[in-house]
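pasting for ref
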Amino acid sequence: MRSCCTILLLLLAGNGLVPVWSQSATQVENTASGQPRLAVLALQAAGVTSLPAPEEIPPALIGEAIALLFFAVVPGADNEALWQARELQYTIPGTPVSVRMVGSEAIIVVSVTPYRSVGEQLMLVTQGQVWFKEDDGTMRYRTSFDTINMSYGERVFFYPFGVQEDGSTALRLEMVVDSYALLQAAWAKTGALVMPPTADAAATDGTGAAVKP
């Protein structure tokens, strides 16, 4: 089972910088203080009123399901988003998911494979591939591999066109990785809806299309 989604970019041309992966320095959500999990906050801020069920996951493996929430952002002045898009996908440990971002001057493919570690720890094997057009029309290709150790609920960043010395970037991909079971429980505490799998989904082998809230 491998799922992929496509996000259309409004712009973007390449540059000579190297793609970079980065991890948030601390656990973003704080359940001890009663704050909702980061993925819950992000989805509800985006206007999602019900948590989609992982219909592509076989019912017997729902307890293993991992949620990956992707946000593609073109930053503007004062870090305000000039453009953004989101995608929620589910997978199970050892099974990759991909996001493809397509623009007139660039194509970006990000692949992520999560593996369980200890407790609520994960290891992510990531690859970012970037094809972009130079000013003279020449096509260039860059790729970046990384292995990231993280906890459920943490956030990872990918900068397909690198980061300038002043910290600016042409495009930022944010990814929150969480256990579906923990996310489902946290979502229920907010009083929002959790969508159950459809009858058709329960009868499938789990190879359905990616979730698109």
